[in-house]
């Protein structure tokens, strides 16, 4: 595997931007292997993901960020992040009592499908300890009560920082994340909500869906923001139901949906293909 | 085509009900050509649609309702409707300015796909008059203002009754239907709402969907009740969108979705396959 | 959990059959908790799945089969199978080198979602031995070569019979099953084929799909018959692709599809909701 | 509406191509309003669609083709087509006896959704003459027999050329198109086949789908080539069916699917978003 750099950026739209940046890469010996861009015409915002082979690139890896910032970012008001494919981001999984999402994440991880490390699992319950054991991943239990919530989250944050966790996946974690943790991981906490948001925000969406008599149920994976179930949506999907379903079968049918939607979102995040702005996402192919 | 009777019923669930009713049909010379049933176990309600060939049935068509009411309905607390396949229900279409739904309805009607008559189209605008002409269907314009709304609806109702309209299809009719008309056509006014209800109730759902940054847009066909966009859902479907879409392309993609979802709901209604209870539907296959 | 009996049957269609059988259950103290039926009008075949609570049923469990056979099956030419919900069928999993399907099956099994036992895994390779260990399920390796195939399969069959295996799931098992084994497990070997059958029968369907330039890829779960990839289809689904995909991303996208389609088919089989006839299935809801 | 130019191109992939072409547009006063590109890494082919506002572009419209050919196409081995948004392409519709596809095309056309002209309809039957009348479009009947086929097609071609038809849509036209006509309209004849190709090539795909017992039916829109049902696929979609369906209901369900899939393909073609190579398509968003 050759080393590549991945640039994710957005800026005010302006003529010649693609030409300028591809020329920067090209003229310095970089070979572009991926380029996708999007222009939000109404807002006048330009988004781009470009990845290039560093083999012949004349700017050293650890200088690219600085060069790009000085040569282009300031000039064109570009907000950007730069990644390298040889760094494996560190992902923490938070779970409660349901195992379907975490099993799917770990099966993909174990099979080597994702360029990621999972140094730990955090839970507010003991129920899924066994899952940690099966996959040899440290499983930390932080039982949360009204009284100890702030304290427990502080301990969790300490652990996350100690392990240098880059992003967090809430795999049906049934606890509201505090503002403090969200601010430390902005657009880096991925949740799965078991409804087609914005329908059925909050608790017990399958009960609400059953009550309303909908003909499809959905699942939504989004970044966590301080407003409940209102963060930028990364992925959604639905499955058809009928009058023959009750709450129990909705829950059953929803499980496959939830895990697939969550895994798709996590995969896009790992691949550095998600850009966020104004509470929305650009998800490149 | 042989004459058939269609019985749509629901009742408190009780042992032996299918046996009793199929025996009633069978022992009187009826040949069952369709039977589908559903039991809502939680609520203890039994639903059934049964259709039988009347060729050898010993009870005369015009007496079946009476016989069934006296012999079974009272005894088992059955709520039922009885239809005959040789009656073509009369359907009115209401439109405003957008033509995609009405064209789809009329294309199916003209091709003879539906056992229905469409004696008239009602609109609050002149824009689609031409569509009525193309298909030789009287097109009545009732311009509605705040001041004349009650009066105009009264005139519409008079026309609907004069033409013996059985049910109404709102094919993107951009006017709230008054309580009076709804009460005269309970569960007989089919609307298409351009969102995945209950998300984005009310006006401008595509704008709201775009604002929220959803990854799928939906359409919902439902019976109109006095609460806006809250009636029993007959059919829903979705189409995938992305960050590349703006409100204009959502509207464009939504058109095919809306018309298909509406047509599916109308078809089920015409086939007498929709049962409503407690603001939900049972839709038989 | 109350004990129930499940009757799966088909027979020549004849008037009064539902009435007769529901009356049999009802008059003997059985409480029907599920009934679904289907009539193939063209072929004149009637299919039914009925499940009833045995708590008050006057015929002892171990006599029901005999009574039904003598009282009804002979008379109405009924082909039937009778199951009890308190028997957990024994399922064997066959795998080769890819883990996505088996992980999904075992995650569901371990979470207690399925009324089934999995006493063993069989493989023609060592690659997934670890998976067996993680889930504490005996993992038997039978390396198959051209020379030893008959012998190895005989050993497999011996093991399957010793463990009283009821049905087999081929979770991306990359070996053609011999006629002998198929005949011992008729309509009891469930395969997942990674294409939308009958398109792309045989090896390397993702390569073939890529070559043909299709816009959707599919997966098909079916019972194994002696004709390759031609057995009765239980479940199919698709996922959208585009010109941006290559064989590698098709394989990647296909994995989630394959495992979900296979799991849905296995679940229906476990629930005794699949009936086969004339190389097709009736799959009840 | 401002005048724009649309460039559709492919070429051997080479570094700096996007930069070069966007620079060409930019430095000559063009404002890019759409750019999408795709690189087939395995084949080393680069594809691009770029559209730019001509208001300030210094090269006159009628010279752009020449300038681009001389300055870039030869040098980089670029195959390209150049379009202008103020030209409305001329589309002919071919039909036989089924009206669902043509009604959908004409409803969209009449509503002004497509930048296209439809000067004529051609049929081998009289059945849909009325449709031409309803929409005021000349309807030409060319009854085709084995004996007169060559002659009739020659007359059709003469008419198509006289009316300067740019492309042809086969809206369920039940006649094989001759090689001569295909060669005159290469990748300009769009067909709808009522199956998920390559499954069920040829006649009666719904019968074949029913026989095989599939759980989904599909439709495929593709460019017509001399090999039957084997041309480059533009769009496909599916709809779920079940054991309750027979051939008649498959045909019924397939109608909505066919028309939507065909309309999507036609729309992409009209928008100049389809590129073909090696019997495949690149379809830009």
CATH architecture of the largest domain in chain A, by name, is: 3-Layer(aba) Sandwich
- Please indicate the percent range of residues of chain A in DSSP E strands (runs of 2 or more): 25-35%
In the predicted model, the low-confidence regions of chain A spanning at least 5 consecutive residues are: none
Q: Helical segment tally of chain A?
A: 8
Q: Assembly state here?
A: homotetramer
Report the major sheet of chain A. Answer: 7 strands, mixed
Q: Number of folding domains of chain A?
A: 2
- Can you give the helix content of chain A as a percent range? 25-40%
Task: Provide an overview of this structure.
Four copies of one chain form a homotetramer. The first copy, chain A, has 285 residues and is an alpha/beta fold. The first copy, chain A, has two domains: 4-84, ACT domain (Alpha-Beta Plaits), CATH 3.30.70; 90-283, Formyl transferase, N-terminal domain (Rossmann fold, 3-Layer(aba) Sandwich), CATH 3.40.50. Chain A has helices at residues 17-27, 61-76, 100-110, 129-134, 149-162, 179-184, 205-212, 247-270, and strands at residues 4-12, 31-40, 45-53, 79-84, 90-95, 117-123, 139-141, 167-170, 189-193, 216-223, 233-240, 274-277, 280-283. Chain A has a seven-stranded mixed beta sheet with strand order 7-6-5-8-9-10-11. A four-stranded antiparallel beta sheet of chain A has the order 2-3-1-4, covered by helices on one side. In chain A, helix 7 (205-212) packs across helix 8 (247-270). The longest helix of chain A is centred in the C-terminal third of the chain and has 24 residues, at 247-270. Chains in contact: A-B, A-C, A-D, B-C, B-D, C-D. Chains B and D meet through helix 3 and helix 8 of B and helix 3 and helix 8 of D.
